[in-house]
Amino acid sequence: MAGYELLIKNGTVIFPDRGVAEKKNIAVRNGKTAEITVALPEAESVIDAEGLFVSPGFIDTHLHDEEICDGKTIEQSMLRQGVTTAIAGNCGCGPLAEEILPHRTSPWINLGYLTGHTKLREAAGCIDSYAAATEEQLAKMCRLLERELKNGSFGLSIGLEYLPNTPASELEALFKTAEPFADIWVPIHIRSDGPAAVASTDEVLDYAKNWKLRFQISHTGSMTAFGHLAEVLEHIDAARAEGRDVTFDCYPYDAFCTHLGSAVFDPGFAERWGKGTEALEIGSGPLRGRWLNEDGLYERLRREAPETLIIAHVIHRDEMELCICHPQCAVASDALLFRGHGHPRAAGTFPRALCLLRSRGYTWPDALRKCTSLPAEMAKLPGKGHIEEGYDADFVIFDPGTLKDNATFAHELLPPTGIKWVVIGGRAAGRCLSQATEDNGYMVRLET
Q: Burial of 87 by CB count in 10 Å (0-12 exposed, 13-18 middle, 19+ buried)?
């Protein structure tokens, strides 16, 4: 019997944490990297990676699959772009375990969930997005959060822009509940974008000073790239230099996407962004592809179809690139779909980010660090983000010469080119993909 289940041979192995690329062979046993060698040990299955790069699987710490109907679509899109591990339930939307887990019994990738502030409020009877919770409701929220954290939630997610009048006291009650749990992660969508982004970022930095929790400022580029990104980065850098546990992420697009009925699109958005309805594209539903500056469309859809996804082409590209190129900024997709439609970030974020980073002078190991070991460190994911003996055998094998994202705003789920194989050691990569040619339970070939 062969000594290993899988051998990946002849590839250039990327060690992002060390900034190194070496021609090595990787042997896998029991879902773990068992040996990294120049030898060619026997194995039951062999992938010949000649001419290809072998990277740790990409890690997406910020995506959304709260819509029951869209989970597998998002997971497949993640897998096709090389993501092997992801954390969902961000921006306060994380569902309670009892609501989501029965529908996620066979995810295509390693998938974890955050518990969402918004969902806690709803479960406690606070359904007004503009109201603070009552004392009774807050007490119930804290009990629910404690239960979820005891049962394995990855942390607490908060979406302050969606709950704009939430008092600090409400958040701090939840922080007090979470603090006794070791290494609890708290990603926060800040309270306001545009001119108030600096003050909104400082709010999170103050929480990081006062609470022994790990804070993440979500999709920093899409929230602050309106003339304020450089100042925001200065404040984050200063807070980190003081020892505050705060990190941040970004996706490589100059348009964001969220639901039209949310507080994000309350009157006044045009003044914040310097652009109005002429920059707002309908991303889901029967009017997908049209623009909100058509007569009465903004008012009608906001009233009759608030779940409609809107793609807002308002982010300053140069600032977004400044953010994603910051050495401590992780790549994260913020993938969001509604009935199969939405923003191309769900299918193209990681290849697009890598190509952008390379064009800005990043080496391959340093660019890949922002997709692998850096997010693994931020989210405290043991055994992930590195190619080391004993670590999970999660890999993406790609052609650096042809890597390219193909998803567009018109065709948001087109898979990238250049991704050849994805290997997920601890969990099956999926039963089949439309373009798969092989699946033996832990590896999927993505291109013929």
A: buried
Q: In 3D, which of 332, 339, 375 has the Cα closest to residue 81?
A: 332
**Two tokens at 88?**
């969902």
Residue of 38, 64, 46 lying closest to 2 (CA atoms): 46
φ and ψ at 402, to 5 degrees? -120, 0
Are 186 and 213 contacting, i.e. CB atoms less than 8 angstroms apart?
yes
Q: Do 380 and 374 meet the contact criterion of CB atoms below 8 Å apart? A: no
What residues does 173 pair with on adjacent strands?
none
Token pair 């906001």: residue: 302
- φ, ψ (nearest 5 deg) of residue 358: -65, -40
Q: Whole-model pTM above 0.90?
A: yes
Are the C-beta atoms of 394 and 424 separated by less than 8 Å?
yes
d(CA 356, CA 333): 14
Query: Residue 62 in contact with residue 87, Cβ under 8 Å?
Result: yes
Strands 110-113 and 43-48: unpaired
d(CA 353, CA 317): 13
Mean pLDDT by 10 residues, the chain (448 residues): 84 95 95 94 92 97 87 90 96 94 87 96 97 97 97 96 97 98 95 96 98 97 96 98 98 98 96 96 97 95 97 98 98 95 97 98 98 97 96 96 97 96 64 33 40
Q: Compute the radius of gyration of the chain from its Cα atoms.
A: 21
**Amino acid identity, position 7:** L
Neighbours of 345 (CB within 10 A): 29
